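Protocol step 4 of 6: record predicted structures for both targets in the notebook before any analysis. Target 1:
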Amino acid sequence: MNYELFIAKRIIAAKQHKSSISSPIIKIAIIAISLGIVIMMIAIATGIGLQQKIREKLSGFNGHIQITNFDNNYSEITLEPVSKNQEFYPEFKSVENIDNVQVFATKAGIIRTETDFEGIIFKGVSEDYNWDFFKEYLVQGELPNFSEDVSTDVLISQEISNRLQINLGDSFNVFFVKEDPSKAPWLRVVKAVGIYNTGFQDFDENFVIADIRHIQKMNRWSVQEVGGFEVLISNFDEIELKSSEVYTETGSTLNAQSVIEKYPAIFEWINLFDNNIYLIIAIMVLVAGINMITALLVLILERTQMIGILKAMGASNVSIRKVFLYNAGYLIIRGLFWGNLIGLLVLLIQKYTGIITLDPETYYVTNVPVYLNFNYIILLNIGTLVLCLVMLILPSIVISKINPVKSIKFE
């Protein structure tokens, strides 16, 4: 029988233990662990959640990897066409874990209403387009259908709708400048069949999603010519590897660029979140460990007489240290239990209500996103428990300094 665990249980269950001098210190230690695990869970869930949402939105507007002509065009507007007759289209068979290959083309335009005007990027897509991203952020109407004849249906953002007073079902004019500025611009009358709101203001205030055949006609391209291809992959963590493989498998006149390469500043910024998460975890574990060290030392000093009796009965220092480490482990587990309960409750409330909001101009999202994965929660709990117990091994050595003769005093 593990008598060390038996003694630890008796200490924990004793009424004197609950009303002793060490009781408030123990409660403070448990609260510190609970708060620490809550803060760590929130830091990880919101940090990873924000990273994923920003990656998702950048990829939703650009695809994970873009294949375009190899030229010096760094703008959002496609200038030279690419032939659709490629080995990798419509299915990229030579590279694994590719979900979809879709064509696109973009053209600068101006929306003109009776009272106002606004410059926009007219993004043309085809029937092969994956609408999953816009389905999530569709706030009104429906998604356009480009599978039949040239469609005048377009998808606009809530930002454009509010600024230009274009409501669902309204038709409006979009003008496109011709290569010869002396000629009258192209005019397209389109209809807003859907309104989206991603909260990514840099894109929302610019992009109108339309039928690619409008751009093909205005640019005098054939139906086999497009602005480029967007490649969607299964796992974003493999994007650098897949970008390299896609680049290798495309022709010498084509360039494959990942969304990370296209927006390096944004990805460098969100990668800094990892450093913040590691720092918060280190600080919280250190605070919890220091509180547990204090509680353990108080428990040992409060039980010096019991330690002396156990030594007089032949118990070794290692066995007695185990008794108090078991006791400390129980306190840590209590703190972890309440911390997990509170942390999960807070995160679930935020996940399903979005009660805490953010400035989309700064963070590219309207509310704090939450990423929940029980793997990281389990690892966080195990790591906290192990690190706290390791930190308690050294202070528990004070038990070996207690003299049984001096400590056994009966009054």
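Target 2:
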Amino acid sequence: MLGSLWHGLKLRLTTQRRLPKKGDRVVMAMSGGVDSSVSAALLKQQGFDVEGFYMKNWDTRDERGVCPSEQDWHDVQQVCQQLDIPCKQVDFVKDYWHQVFQDTLDDYAAGLTPNPDVLCNQHIKFGSLLNKIPDDAWLATGHYCRTDGYGRLLRGREPAKDQSYYLSTVPWTALQRTIFPLGDIPSKRQVKQMAHDMGLLQVATKRESYGICFVGQHRKFADFLGQYIDQPAGQAMDLESGKIIGEHKGLFGYTIGQAAHIHHGSHKWFVAHKDMESNTLLCVPGSTHPALFHQACIARHWTWIHTYRPSSPSINVMAQVRYRQQPLKARLTQDDDGRYRVTFEQPIRAMARGQQVVIWDRDWCLGSGIIDDIVPANLPI
């Protein structure tokens, strides 16, 4: 797609290829779930010298809810014992608080929609953890994506589980030291079957965790954030008429495009905008209202994985603003202020400031930025 624009980069990468070989030491980042457990087993089967590392990112003494971290650590120990590999717990509580959680709180308080998983991968898993392992060792994770030894980040074989979106700010120097054992596995179902066949029964049927672990399995995310963000309730307003239709419980708990849970009239209301200055939640009736669609976004803090910028001021890419969103054709251009504009061929629904916009050349992830502004689509009402 990008053609000769990336030819020079590809030539340079071919001279720096690094591939793992049997007997190499590998530090496996283990979570207590099926993905990292099967990854560890595959590496052991392939003859690598494997050691499991469990990252402790949250101190349960600071949390009034129920965190599954102790059970996860127990599962990691059990799996490693079964595989006959050593394991240890590494403490990144302070790193996580200062480099991920505090920024996440600040963004939510400012009305943004941040992605803490992107920050965690950038600063903790491929930052603090990678810095703890020897220079001659590999890092392995259970992400569904691939790398080719040149430090290129590639999509996983299963489109529905591809997780390269979350790694779009990880530098190629870190990716060149990383192994993704599940990158070529065609389905999550097969991974679970592999766990069963390997005798890893405690993780084969374990419920998959979503989101941030310390929120707990039975708590609402907005309730959790409310312990740290002091924002008052306010009015919910119909964007079209300006009429008050209800009350919100704090703007930090609402996401653009999601149901507002406002009961007024016969409509189902959806969040279109958060006015932080007036503390007002602006809503529209119906999930396909034109106000929910946008044509372009402008991104700050742009990261090129290879610190390589295309020579052309405008290039065609595939882009996503959410994990599991279908990749969409777009045009990337650099604005005069240094930010990047991503213009989609077709309007997309529910873009929000603070989200990560990620670009690819086919399956090759090139980088990403944080959405700073959005451009509405000109759709008829």
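Step 5 preliminary note on target 2. The first strand starts at residue 25 and ends at 30. The chain has three domains: 24-215, 231-285, 290-376.
Proceed to step 6 after PI sign-off.
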